[in-house]
Amino acid sequence: MPAILGWYNVKDYGATGDGTTDDTTALQAAIDAAPDYATVFIPYGLYKITDELTVDHPLFFQGSGYQYGEVASKLGGTVIWQATDGAGGFNCTQAHDAQAENSTFFDGMRITGPGDGSQRPSSPSSGIGIYGLTDITTNNVQVDSFYDGIKVDDEAWYSRFTNTQVLHNAHDGLLLYNTNNAIVTGVRALSNGNSGVRAVCDDGAHGRTLHVFAGSFENNGYAGLQVDGYTAVNLHGAYFEQYYGSPTADLTLGLVIACKDVSLHGCFFEGGNAPWHIDSKYLTRLTLVGGGMVAGASGGIRGVSPADNLLRLSFDLDGASVSWAGSSNAL
After folding, report:
1. Residue 84 pairs with which residues in a beta bridge?
2. 231: Cβ–Cβ under 8 A, 6 or more apart, which residues?
3. Is the CB of residue 241 less than 8 Å from the CB of residue 217?
4. pLDDT in tens, 37-92
5. How many CB atoms lie within 10 A of CB 6?
């Protein structure tokens, strides 16, 4: 049956979505058949795959929704289930061209790995792996039970993650590596083994920016949000919580590679398991406006930067401590 209005239904290529049949070949056939910027439609069902799906051209993947926050069960909505340990979900690879709109879009689905929340894969794999794309968007997507949930690598520009959940992945929930102008909106990063969201720029490029709007970062192993090497980082209305495990901090800034200007507006921190809510090292300026933190057993804000670095506060510390090596002032 030919595609209607540019939509390619995976069931027209033999996919069953019954949770038992291996649908890898059928899903790959639909991907290969769809031309650039077409929509691959994955209707309600549990689609078992046993190898990575390769996406080598810009496509839009549309599901029918998913059951919010579920990890142990694989039922509900459009679910792509990778049954092989060490294999990823979607491997999206294209030649990078900063002038081209190499768009790939995921909407309305859950992509789950071989783990089940308690048993996590030990071999590197990503639910969605992005390599060389100029423009990547996820919306209303959950990725769980892989090694890394979503991994964006190799000079990706203009990445957007909206209403996306990254849960119970063995390493990072969302890993952004040498990306620019990434926008993270309403993301929930929960119980990932390393960081809920980790953004690292180590290529020495200038102008790397990261924007985080709302969302929650809860009970991740190392940090809720870990940022290294970015020029400008802006957080608005984010919620951080660490009640379990032995994390380093809720938010780490420039502990490995220097960051420059970081601003937080209306963010809130609570939970007592991290030694510090905000831990920073090589950082030019940290500005906190509105929001606050609950002291609990945690320290509040630490900066072990050189003495010319600046902390600016208009923020409710609620008795949380501040240890800052540079200068500070109230706004």
Report:
1. none
2. 206, 207, 208, 209, 259, 260, 261
3. yes
4. 999 999 999 999 999 999 998 899 999 999 876 666 777 899 999 999 889 999 99
5. 11
